[in-house]
Amino acid sequence: MIENNGYIPDELHEECGVFGVYDLDGNDVVSTIYFGLFALQHRGQESCGIAVSDTNGPKGKVRSCKGMGLVSEVFTPEQMESLNGNIGVGHVRYSTAGESSIHNTQPLVLNYVKGTLALAHNGNLVNTPQLRRELEYTGAIFQTTIDTEVIAYHIARERLNSKTAEEAVVRAMKKLSGAYSLVIMSPRKLIGARDPFGFHPLCIGKRDNAYILASETAALNAADAEFIRDVLPGEVVMIDEKGIHSDTSLCNQKIAKCVFEYIYFARPDTRFDGVSVYNSRIMAGRILAQTHPVEADVVVGVPDSGNAAALGYALEAGIPFGMAFVKNSYVGRTFIKPKQSMRASSVRIKLNVLPEVVAGKRVVMIDDSIVRGTTSAKIVKMLKSAGATEVHVRISSPPFLYPCYFGTDVPTGDQLIAHKHSVEEIRDLIGADSLGYLSVERLSDMLGGDTGFCDACFTGNYPIEPPSENIRGEYEQ
Ligand code: SF4
Question: Which sequence ranges form a coiled-coil region, renumbered to this chain (predicted)?
Fold first, then answer.
């Protein structure tokens, strides 16, 4: 039996989603940002915010609304009415560094000598403590515990010695180490920046005469915009009344896109750096069918990200695909976590099994990952209770062995089941009849041959030296 005594959630979270718009025709952008954030809700459900400004109005007049909760909970029609402006940025947040509180919500709005900056950030820096100390020793006072404020301060400082805001961003980026996809609103410009490794996505879209920056292409679709291109790893793009300008002076190193964006975090209807997330999941399922075949009657996927991989497995193996799980999509932040005595039912609230699909059948169950194993054990048990005669678990990622420092909450090794147990032991612990993982060697095949990705949580091969100090909440005492 697998214990989860601290009631640590057995699922992974992305840190954040970012969105920015500049409408050159002067139209209000708040509803576009709202729809964009709505489409990015899966990337963060703790808090969200929107900041807008008018490029033709007084410099530095920024209207913002932020709060704890889902996009649909935080923004009221009255607030939306009051957020007038033709340029703006938005953010959805899940905290992997810095506590979950109203102080740490984004976009961060900063007034300084050159005007106002509003920042929204996805990712984690690994040198936050050093950068923060550098600022504190020269008099900076911080209002939040998030690394985004450190980025904002460094940009503001560099701006004093730079001709333009985008030049200040490039100069600040030379000091930053880690993962960041940024959208920044200055009084007259929208700026997007992606760290040189390109850990997390950032793309550019256009609708009529409005330019958009978004974490995922699915958010462009929601805003009825057409995809133009991805922001390159290391690139800074600046949008002003003349259109898009680009600085690629930092685009010169090995790329390390987060491979788990494809496996789990991103929406299946997103394309990340030219690779379809849906196709990569189908391919992961096909590879699993090749490397871990089994005699079975039906293939089922654990929603949501397991579904496409299950279809891929079914297509490759010639086994029927079935929809065995009914998911409650309305389990949001306000869901009250069950007490110790009620824990067994927490998965059941989110997922229910259709006996019609699995009773009397040998089932292949595809999931995207196993973190601590508690959820997998419950789902296998639910399938067997519904009458499955055998449950063969296939995982569309390699075993998690190492923590992530780049904006996702893959925990430290001792909390990962694969760190302490062999595959056969995990199979036994989760009650499956067989268990197979996607191999590290086939991750590139999953991405159509792309090799520029990070797989550190599976291999320990970190593209950047892991931080020597705690970067998760060091300043919260
Ligand atoms: S360590 Fe894992 S989760 Fe973190 S960026 Fe790399 S692949 Fe993504």
Answer: none
